[in-house]
Amino acid sequence: MILAVDLIELLSLPVIQRSGFGLLVAGTFMPVVGVLIIGFDILTVRFAIMHVALLGLALGLWIGVDPTLLALVLCAVIGTAVTPLAGRPGGLSGPMGLLMTITAAAALLVLSVSGVNANSAFTLLWGSILATRPADVVILIILALLVLGMFLWRRRELCLVLFDREVAVCSGVAVSAVTAVALLGVSVSIAASIRLTGALLIDSLTILPALAARNLAHSLSSMVRIAIVIGLAGNAVGFLLALELDLPPGPVLVMVAGVITITTYIKKGPSKHAQVPH
Q: Which letter, b or e, does each residue of 200-229 get, where b requires 16 or more Cβ atoms within 10 Å of its Cβ?
């Protein structure tokens, strides 16, 4: 365990300040992404996007382009391309499973053919909060502004689409456009945040705050607000606790977010009809 004096000294280090600031920025918009994931029922998308990001990282390392930037671009393209499939029977589950399998195989093939050290790509994919670069923070700030701006701008349309696509169409909402923007935001945000907690721990930034907020909210807007508060609080507490106990930040963040989420389920009690509030 680190003494209080040592913790203060740690917090004075630029790398710690940058990592903590990155987590706080992520906490302002990634829970919104989680709300969209739950609302559109696209839980499988995040797994597919992680594999797309791995392919982008592998290609970037091979051709000498910034791996994170290439992963972002590739995820943005894929997120936009799958939009027409969202309105079909069965949704995105099947296509995303196929995409996940193909991109994983393609990433491994690129790593094999290129001779790139696979550990380099997987290290980027699993991420490390303490390895956050200034460029990563800038990307997160830009995404935070875009995601929050998109939600505020299209809040009514999003509510209608999440409530009922047919009702949204009858109300004059451009459902395909709204869905495309949402999927694009989800895809790019997941790709950008992988460096913070890693692919396996990304849910601590997205799904868990959204699930906790769903148990406490009575409308989509309140769900978003509560999710952001929970995301910020969970990130701050988890990061400080990890530093205090000298433990890896990623797993500690997940445990803290998990405890908060479980607490909201206990408070809510059993329910047969859990859904996104409208």
A: ebbbbbbbbbbbbbbbbbeebbebbebbbb
